[in-house]
Amino acid sequence: MQERELSPEELDELLDAFKEFDTDQDGYISYKDLGECMRTLGYMPTEMELIEISQHIKMRMGGRVDFEDFVQMMGPKLREETAHMVGVRELKIAFREFDMNGDGEISTAEMREAIAALLGEQLKAQEVDEILQDVDLNGDGHVDFDEFVMMLSSR
């Protein structure tokens, strides 16, 4: 059985994720950022997988990965996981649905409205605050995109 090629959309998705973690824009991402990057793509690596991948990258690639190596690493995972995964693009679309004023964060009011739309019922302010507290990892009173991804991937 021959492996299928990645679609242009899948390659775009990998590139979006890669660019997001290539913070200094040198064309590489560090092995330290790889786990987070994989989670952003909807792939949930085990600690053991991350250790193995990190060892491989440290020994063979000088501790960092370029886009080509990243595609080689993630391509098979994307192909096998596609049916169960939510991609970066879908996550961003969902995040924008919640972030009604487009400021890049989900406020308590936006969270309350989104939950009401999803559940078809209003939650008490205290219930929304509790949800927000669990999800708001940095404690700034809002949910940013990374916190949103973590919230969805921890389910």
Automatic annotation (TrEMBL):
**Key words, A-Z:** Calcium, Metal-binding, Repeat
List cellular component terms (GO): cytoplasm
GO molecular function annotations of the record: calcium channel regulator activity; calcium ion binding
Q: Which residues form the EF-hand domain?
A: 9-44, 86-121, 123-155
Under SMART domains, the record lists: EFh
Q: Which InterPro entries match?
A: CaBP1/2/4/5, EF-hand-dom_pair, EF_Hand_1_Ca_BS, EF_hand_dom
**Keyword field contains Metal-binding:** yes
Q: What name does UniProt use for this protein?
A: Calcium binding protein 4
Say which species the protein is native to: Catharus ustulatus (Russet-backed thrush)
Q: From the UniProt record, report the name of the gene that encodes this protein.
A: CABP4
